[in-house]
Amino acid sequence: MKKLIDVASGRVKADIVIKNATVADVFGGRFVKGDVAVCGDRIAGVGKYDGNIEIDGTGKFVAPSFYDTHLHFESVMIRPSEYLRTVIPTGVTAFNADPHEIANVAGEKGIRFMIEDAKGVPADVRFMMPSCVPSAAEDRSGCVINAADAVAIAKKEKLFGLGEMMNFPGVINCDDDVMKKLEAFDIIDGHAPSVSGEPLNAYICGGILTDHECETAEEAADKVSRGMYVMLREGSQTKNLRTLIKAVNKSNLRRFLFCTDDRNVEDLFELGTIGNNIRLAVECGMSPIDALTIASLNAFEAYGSKNRGAIAPGYYADFIVCDNDCGQHPEKVFYHGKLVAENGKALFDTKPAKPDALFGSVRIKPIKESDLYFEYTDGMPIMRVFPNTVVTALTEAKSRDGLDMMCCIERHGASGAIGHCYVEGFGLKGGAVAQTVGHDAHNITVLGDNARDMKAAVDALGKDGGLALVKDGELIGKLPLEIGGLMTAAPAEDALATRKKLLAALSTMDYNKDIEPFMLLSFLTLIVIPEVKLNHKGLFNVSKWDYVYKK
Amino acid sequence: MKKLIDVASGRVKADIVIKNATVADVFGGRFVKGDVAVCGDRIAGVGKYDGNIEIDGTGKFVAPSFYDTHLHFESVMIRPSEYLRTVIPTGVTAFNADPHEIANVAGEKGIRFMIEDAKGVPADVRFMMPSCVPSAAEDRSGCVINAADAVAIAKKEKLFGLGEMMNFPGVINCDDDVMKKLEAFDIIDGHAPSVSGEPLNAYICGGILTDHECETAEEAADKVSRGMYVMLREGSQTKNLRTLIKAVNKSNLRRFLFCTDDRNVEDLFELGTIGNNIRLAVECGMSPIDALTIASLNAFEAYGSKNRGAIAPGYYADFIVCDNDCGQHPEKVFYHGKLVAENGKALFDTKPAKPDALFGSVRIKPIKESDLYFEYTDGMPIMRVFPNTVVTALTEAKSRDGLDMMCCIERHGASGAIGHCYVEGFGLKGGAVAQTVGHDAHNITVLGDNARDMKAAVDALGKDGGLALVKDGELIGKLPLEIGGLMTAAPAEDALATRKKLLAALSTMDYNKDIEPFMLLSFLTLIVIPEVKLNHKGLFNVSKWDYVYKK
Fold first, then answer.
1. What ipTM does the predicted assembly reach?
2. Contacts of A174 in chain B (CB under 8 A)
3. What's the angle, vertex CA B240, arms to CA B66 and CA B507, rounded to 5?
4. Cα–Cα–Cα angle for A234, A240, A241, nearest 5°?
5. Which of A77, A78, A205, A550 is the most exposed place for a label (fewest CB within 10 A)?
6. Residue A367 and residue A415: Cα distance in Å, rounded?
7. B418-424, strands of its sheet edge to edge
């Protein structure tokens, strides 16, 4: 502290000074002019300062770096350190990461991998304890984590809080195991789509701090009024920002946060993450300083982190330097006083992915073509899918034409369990797609118009898993996801290239082009989303909570 | 938690419901309609609720109760519990109290008395560790508390943080003992009048969270931009609110707080405390909901207290019910779900003041008239005082006419030390005033136009101390302050009555009526305020840090 005060007072030269900059003042809602002095990992102040390293800030903006308050690294299909190497250069240096997917595959081992992989990366990476593993007892994921386990893991791994509590009925109805989880954590993220009124009060009484599932501006404003922090989420599939930002005004601004939740690797490279939220917010008419405040100070305040999220004396020196007032394309990114990225490139390396027990996570009984085949009959219950939503409809088959077959193959315990159903609306012809990504249990999902190609696609996944595409009996594309069947061990750039090749191969196939097949497929097994989903046992009616078709 | 969720969900009746009320929504910056449900010490939510006790809220407003973020109970000259009994009915239920004055008289014993006295009162009374005892080493107070002592006391007494760090040069210059204090506390209140620029950065780097000494709106806005919470103080003498509120806008509102610092007992009864800040803020054009937000949510946020300061699910049920939207004259005050005041009257009693070691705190050598007398000579250095400020001027005596004699008598260790000086501008004739309240060392200050009356006034203070007024050799008024010579053991109402009598007696005397003698006298010994002050050694030039006259 003495050295910091010496520097702040001007008696001692700063380590680094950004001279003559325009500085985002997130406390005052304005920009101020001055030299930003850095001492060690802290900001000494904005004023007139000399430094051992001086960077000309003339015409440049200095702003606190950003906080993505809710995301799943797994969605990007690259490992945490590769994600961070890609995203930190865009100005994000704090992350609340919920390793919910890998925990569903590999439990504590999976969580530990994520933590270890991110270790040493210059950023505040705050891992949450996944709250719902599995998301429903009816599912067969790779792991079951009850309250006692969750508390023990969180303590051992020093987790930041409890991840999105998706089991909102469990909270509202005081389920025992849920109560035990809630009582054990100070910080609890929420997930309460369309919950309102007295049930919402009950949910919040469970100690839930945030929500990222608002669908309307009214819902967002109401949740804020009841004391929640509301996240303006902009993911690759779920894009809520433009709608929800209508709820934000100068009085309630401090209760809003930015997050991405789920992002794919193309968007990661093309749009970035929180910088994209800021850009959209400003496009919607928000002032740049308000958007920057949501991206920084608000988030640290929400999670009770002192001395973070502002360019102010004693605050951690986590900031960006850029040529615009919206934090776009930062020229420099500093974390804890160190330059960690410049002109879009990280100045640090990632460690190689450890070939550990998360490789070879696909454990299935050998599959025969006949295992995947099942009879079609007129009037049988089938699943209808739609573009731009993961909500499905239960319907009756009228004709075999244009239907695809889908199977969900249990892949954690080699039980041999397989669920089957016909799907309308996908329109895939002359091939099959298979993948080990299937929320939340992440069993194998395979869809195609014939059992031979379906088997070939499953076979192509191998022991490590990933995404596979078969056309007329031939494997035409694959993205290996060796880590738990969810993430690639390859560098982010390679993952992007491989995925682009896969999408190019996909484009040669015949299917409903309004659909993004890999994404949609990954949600057709999520039995907590209506109206009908497929798990390893059969076709499941979500609202009736029962099976409507088994082979 | 289970019962709270049961109530919030509507499955179980609430303990208390305020039906059909208009509720201050400090998160949304608006008022909302609904029933406020209370379960135990918490709010279950705002919605449609039934309760075992139902209170009709039709046409009424419900708002979170208020937080006075910085005050000294001693200034009111009544003990903490009596203060709280008087103020809680006005809607204030949280207090950051700095027992700085009693600590200067009696050290840890004094602090412990304050804590014990407030114990059991239904309010969040958060005691701070006084940071500067004495405020200057040159002074002779009743106690010296160094960093090690401060840390030990704070730990033992579970103090909330470090009280206003008045020694700002000590922070900026990294004095050893000051550094040790700063490093030991997470929460540190500030006191940095007119400090700005790089020195202010240095001060804030010491971990200082707040400031209540801004003199201009520009200073307030600047301090906010540098990360401080700025208190809009409205005391009995120092009234900053109307000036500083010009700095508040919708962007920086969240960084402002309300406090009273020093209040006298008449104001306590006539104006209250934080309710008065709210009233003035609204008079200045602030919206009622913004003023209520400053009074509640902002303050709890500043000090990192979760689940306090709002009417929201899971929040502590600390709130008021009143017939106006500005929190004036609450009909009911609830603390932690219990009705603790109604129609201006507390529903709890205070314990009797314990006649403990803080009584009989006046320890002086017997005083002779000649001890108080000292020669006048033309051209000698004297003190000039002015109305409405505690700042004085050093000047040269031109004539004995109209001057008063002032003495400062060391009263903690019976050392016999007495400082003397002549005072211009007070104009007291035919009498003397003496008191044991004299910031910050609280020695005896006596002022009069003749030594005989001065001695009589000092004698009248007795072993317990207080304020005494002598006219033509006769004691015409006295307010006994048995507790450390600073606070009365009497009930608040009696203190008010006695003080009113004293002021009535004072009004019969001949003095400069633009001056409030007791208040002014209490600051003429404070050697950290310019330009010249009197302590037990002599007349002290503050800027030169040396004595200019000794008898």
1. 0.95
2. 2, 5-6
3. 100
4. 70
5. A550
6. 12
7. B393-396, B381-384, B418-424, B404-409, B444-448, B431-435, B466-471, B474-480
